[in-house]
Amino acid sequence: MHKCLIFLLFMMIFCGVSKAQSAEPTDPKATEDWSRRPTIVQSLKSSSDIPSDAIILLNQDQVNWIKKDGTPTDWTFEKGVLTVKPGSGDIISKASFEDCHLHLEWRSPLIVKGEGQGRGNSGIFLQSRYEIQILDNYNNETYYNGQAGAVYKQHPPLANACAKTGDWNTYDIIYKAPVFDLNGYKVSAGYVTVIHNGIVIQNNTEIVGTTEYIGFPKQVLHGGAPFILQDHGDLVSFRNIWVRRL
Ligand code: MG
Description:
By secondary structure, the chain is mostly beta strands. The chain contains one helix and 15 strands, in the order H-E-E-E-E-E-E-E-E-E-E-E-E-E-E-E.
C-alpha cells in the first residue's frame, strides 16, 4: 500500500512536469532568444562597396592570387583588373576557404572570338574542385550544362543572365561545403546558390562531386582549399573579388 502511494505520487509529479514542458506559451517573450546577437557587418550602399568583414582577394591594390606552385601569377594586372594570360595556367587564392559568400566580377573579351566553349571561357572552382562556369554566353550556344553559371556538367543555370559581350558580370556565390567523416565518406553534400547580375541561377543546388571534363563526378575527401580561377586560353578579366567566411 505504501509503495502504491509513492508510485502514484511519482506519476502525478512526472505528468505535471511533462505537461508543463509541452504547454504552449502564452507570453510572446517565451519564444524570444536574447542569449546572443549577430555580428554587425556594414551593409553595401553600392555594388562596388565591400562588406566590412570581407577578405579581399582582388582590388585596386591587392592581387591575392598565385600560381599553383606558389610563385607569383603571370596574369596581367592593370588598374585593379586581372586578366588571364593564356597558357600561363590556372591561379589559386592564397588562402583556403570552406563555407563562404564569394563575390566576383568578370568580363569576357570585347572582341568576339570563337564559339561555344571557346568564347570567353574561364571558371571559378570552389575548394579547388567544383567549377562554376564562366563563359561568354551572350548570343553563344553551347551544351545545357556547360552554360555560364552552370555547376559544370552537373547542373545548368536556371536562366541565362549574361551581360553583353565585353560588359562586366557579377557573381555572388553562397557555398556550403561538403562534409566527410573520418573514413572519407561524404555525410553531407556541398550546396551552392549563384546570383548572376542579380538573377538567381543556382538555388541551393546539390553538388554531385568533383568537376570532370571527361567522365562522371568523383567523391574525393578534402578539407578547406583555395579557389581556382581557370586559364582556358581566353582573355577573361576579373575585378573586385572578395569573400566572407560563413
Ligand atoms: Mg570553364
